[in-house]
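> agent: user asked for a holo structure of the chain below bound to LJ64HWYM. Plan: (1) validate sequence alphabet, (2) canonicalize SMILES, (3) run complex prediction with ligand conditioning, (4) return tokens. Step 1... ok. Step 2... ok. Step 3 dispatched.
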Amino acid sequence: MRYISTRGQAPALNFEEVVLTGLAEDGGLYVPEELPQFSHDELEAMAGLPYTEVAFRVMKPFVGDEIDDATFRRLIEETYGTFKHAAVTPLNQLDHNHWLLELFHGPTLAFKDVALQLLGRLLDHFLARRGEKGVIMGATSGDTGSAAIEGCRHCDNLDIFILHPHNRVSPVQRRQMTTVLAENVHNIAIEGNFDDAQAIVKGSFADQAFLRGTRLIAVNSINWARIMAQIVYYVAAGVALGAPHREVSFTVPSANFGNLFAGYMARRMGLPVKQFVIATNANDILHRTLTENDFSKRELQATLAPSMDIVVSSNFERLLFEAYGRNSTAVREVLERFQREPAALADAPLAELRRLFASHRVDDDTILEVIREAFGATGELLDPHTAIGYRAAQRARSDDTTPMITLATAHPAKFEEAVVRAGFEGAPLPEAMQDLMAREERYDVLPAELAAVQRFVAEHRH
Ligand SMILES: Cc1ncc(COP(=O)(O)O)c(C=O)c1O
Ligand SMILES: N[C@@H](CCOP(=O)(O)O)C(=O)O
């Protein structure tokens, strides 16, 4: 399998190279040159299989023969062996036709674990095979950081630098990162927001001289392996609810759009998906683009769903690439315009997106209302991000007969503020994290400046 850049001006890479890199050198994101296709029979055969077997079948075409089957199966088994639910990503029925896809049973209690626990193992495998070392730089609004640290902290060949927005992640999220005191783990609190952190990471890919030749690796969803691993749970959930014999729909709490883009890939590979609902918080660029063709930046707002406090949605570029018929010149133009001024999409790609995607924006008051309402109706205590999805599914689904699967992206224990403000005592942390709030923390606070961060990385890597 070859991977090409959405901006069309970077060399094509193989799977190993694409995992070991981040942004393409032309500033684009890598996507597969051709998408594997699953036939009706192949999808049908996946129903009822263990998650790990579905994972192997879905991801194998992307990996090709770059990892032998026995090794790849071992990496998959080890990865999902860290999850606390036998089904890995169980479906939980809420009413006659609405399901929650629980993605928070991994070690750090958010959907990021599904991909990042695998990515850490893939990186370790490739770097050890090459006898190379690497430096990871990642930006987090709270969840990617801890999942990446958990996935990579045992990798001898890696230093990991995670940038989080200072005082803008929840206390549990911060401590899940900053209490990991391993020598190769470095937490940086940026005096800015997530977009600032993400811009510094992307800027570092554009100018890597500060690393003097050491490889820079991405763990954010700009890394294709993140998307690849997330495709699996769409397929597993879809076939569990009757695909390919019937269509299913998905609602996805969205911000950087890596999660929903994986669902879109699953559809392009053959999963019969009727509708995707994009659920946003007040940082609603995806909703505005879809409904008003307003593809423009606005000031980032702090909300009760802090992991979705993102304005510049990286993976929307991958969707635009598909909607523009893989015309990288057109994609480059629209994204360059977006950096300077409000941009609008051309008529045909916008119509293409509207055919498949609906969207809904949920404000903080509604998040609290939904947490109470959903608990009353179903007995489930939703985290604030999942609450956004729950309401969006109710408001934007196109019909009541297609099964609707709402992605539950995090465990409520990570977001005490919203849970308590909704009137609950809080959600207990799992046993293994009981002492989290008493553990020693280590992190450095830095200005949101590329040079300051690059200097820090250069000084602290091993
Ligand atoms: C809990 C949670 N829900 C939803 C999202 C949004 O996912 P995505 O960025 O893939 O759109 C994130 C992170 O971005 C998250 O951490
Ligand atoms: N919500 C994310 C933001 C980063 O998104 P990613 O999927 O691109 O890593 C977080 O919690 O850090």
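> agent: step 4 complete. Summary for user: Residues 83 and 107 are 6 Å apart (CA to CA). Residues 112-130 form the longest helix (19 residues).
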